[in-house]
Design a protein that fits this description.
alpha/beta, two-stranded antiparallel sheet, 280 residues, TIM Barrel
Length: 280
């Protein structure tokens, strides 16, 4: 079980391993493109080679890629929906070039089509992502905090989408590896890692299956449990608190699940140290 954080690729993707090393990362997460939209810069063979060489030289044990934020598999607009499918396929291919293990993505919103139809469209979209895909990177679904009509705030809903998509993918089902569990998002969605850790874990096992958790976004929460407000806080300084993270780290360590912090610099360096100390 390794600890790291999300790092910048400013100046080129080849700069990310240095940034990760400076923060004390054992693993790292990056965007490969502007997260809010815009053109994805080409990954040149020189940049990819330098990225891999630096990642190896700094002893980084895994690379994870976060998909852009504009993804919406359930949009009523064909342009947005098919653009989302194309973007995720492209991110998987770019991640494969970089030797990244997983790409994680949010799913979008059901405000256009309603929940039932949105789940159906999301499953169809995930199926289309892998048509003709031959890369090595696999996809993870990330849970949401549930503000508005965002898809994926409940473990039940994510489990329904995950199982439906895997069934639709058939022989390609392993390309959809599982989920990235965000501790803050799940806490904001009502899963109380602070006061009812066992109960929250039982819900996760019931609807998704613990074996499907492949990565954890380790973020404390500025907002209260059940608030549906997405606000990250430094480890131990938020509403989940240190006792909650002692249990979360013990779970991650037992199951060999890497933890990635998505908190602000420079405090994220201390968050990494805190998680390492809880682990060790």
């Amino acid at each position: 079980m390794n600890v790291g954080c999300h790092v910048s690729i400013a100046g080129g993707v080849q700069n990310a391993p240095q940034n990760a090393h400076d923060a004390g990362c054992e693993v790292m997460q990056i965007f490969t493109r502007p997260p809010a939209g815009g053109r994805a810069s080409p990954l040149t063979s020189a940049a990819v080679a330098e990225f891999k060489l630096k990642a190896e030289s700094y002893g980084l044990r895994a690379v994870y890629v976060h998909a852009p934020y504009f993804i919406n598999f359930a949009s009523s607009s064909n342009r947005i929906r098919y653009g989302s499918i194309s973007s995720i396929k492209q991110e998987l291919e770019r991640a494969s070039l970089l030797g990244a293990k997983y790409v994680m993505t949010h799913l979008g919103s059901f405000k256009d089509l309603g929940e039932e139809e949105s789940i159906k469209k999301t499953i169809e979209g995930l199926q289309k992502v892998f048509e003709g895909y031959t890369g090595s990177a696999k996809l993870l679904i990330e849970n949401s905090a549930g503000s508005g009509s965002v898809i994926g705030s409940s473990f039940k809903q994510i489990g329904q989408i995950l199982s439906g998509a895997k069934s639709a993918l058939g022989g390609l089902k392993d390309n959809l590896a599982g989920i990235c569990l965000d501790t803050q998002h799940s806490f904001a969605s009502g899963y109380n890692w602070r006061d009812d850790f066992t109960g929250a874990l039982k819900e996760l096992e019931k609807h998704i299956g613990l074996a499907n958790i492949k990565l954890i976004h380790a973020n404390d929460s500025m907002s209260e449990c059940g608030s549906h407000v997405d606000r990250h806080e430094h480890i131990g300084a938020g509403k989940i608190g240190m006792d909650g993270f002692k249990n979360l780290v013990a779970f991650a360590k037992k199951n060999k699940i890497d933890m990635i912090c998505e908190t602000k610099s420079p405090g994220v360096t201390e968050d990494i140290k805190t998680l390492k100390s809880l682990r060790d």
